[in-house]
Amino acid sequence: MPLDRYCGSMDRRQFLRNGLIGAAGVGVLSTVEMTAAYAAEPGLGPYGSLEGIAPDANGIILPEGFTSRVIATSGDLVPNTTHQWHIFPDGAATFPDGDGGWYYVCNSEVFNFMTNFESHGGVSSVHFNKDAEIIDAFPILEGSHSNCAGGPTPWGTWLSCEEGFFPPLWGKVWECDPTGQNTAVERDALGFFAHEAVAVDPVDEKLYLTQDKGNGLLYRFTPESYPDLSNGILEAMLVLNNGDVSWEKIDDPTGASTPIEEQVSGAFITDGGEGIWYHNGWIWFATKGNNRIHSVDLRNQRYELIWDGIDDRQPLTGVDNVTVEEGSGDLFVAEDGGNMELVVISPEGEVAPFCRLEDLAHEGSEMTGPCFNPNRDRLYFSSQRGPSNKQAIEVVPAYTDGTHYNAGVTYEISGPFRGRVLPPPPTTTAAPTTTAAPTTTAAPTTTLTKAAETASPTGSKDSNNSGVVVGISAGVVALLAGILAVRRRVTKEDSTE
Question: Which one in 33, 84, 117, 232 has a CA-CA gap of 20 to 30 Å to 328?
């Protein structure tokens, strides 16, 4: 079923902004959101103005001292590998490999209604060594669809979110192993809806999820036995006029009887929920329908509006995926449209472009999946329908959208990010010691185990969906639980010092 069958004369961006099918009955935004003052203002930002800087060889305008390279072009083989890079690259994250290198995982956002309801999405992983050289690439999830954004877990897995819009194929969340050693498993307890992204609070052991729908909500998931995501309680956020936050349980996370977003009266409406990220007791999330960046102080349960881009207020419009550079606290926001910029919101309260895609070949595309490598000296992002050697339909023949989009391209930016991990200074008073570089996520831990190759997706609402089921090993979970309990005690003790 082609896209234009649903959106008529609207372009894809406007179509998705309107919440696709089922956006009728959009709720009224809470008073606190409508009246909150701007918390951040336009400025030069930590890297200065881009004015007068010429694009580099890849058509990217970058601050002084930064360089770019293409790491993968959709439809072509990833350099030094036999793996063909997927079309429409979207949400992404990195995970340390334990040897100084890292895995870069990236979603493929191929909507099932664009492929006659066949599942052609999934997730790929690229393995870099300590010198940032690509040494391998491979799929870690196949047989899924509409893989939009997601989020990394503190135990080293990737949660890939399906932005499904049509019953009985509402979106699910898949837990994936970045190393490719274990098969991905669907996490039905996280709900069936148009998932966008997810962030994990490792202190309170809760997950926060956005919904890409005009009348979507912000959800909180509390696992029954953290970090096992098989079971738990799903809740929706409410915000009082004074900014206080509360949560109310979702009775039916499957949405079988009542759409999940309609089960909590008075819930906070997120107009097209996009990226979300956790950092130091806070979450930040974007809503594209009203061009806003929001935050929640999780320890004090308080809501704040960080950026209001109403009427395409510059320099940030078309808000989409987000990430926080752990070392500096800088929030990076990718634009879906806008000026095709990656914009930084600093803790100092300045909003400024970090880089810009200038090539006209990016017309009709969007920036997706910003994320840093573990040492935070390299930043990755994609132009989802950016310049490629093949069009999407040449890579995925089932793609039936009448618009012939480019397949996409993925970039790496290197340079003096202010939150990067610096090498230890030389010393003459003691013999050098080797210390592990701090990372934003734990090294990948095997929490997934292989299932029988003939197994069908557990809890799937569609028997034709070709995902593969795995489970978490009880022994591993018990071991992880013990380790995490110690970590939590240490973390909480440190926080009181």
Answer: 33
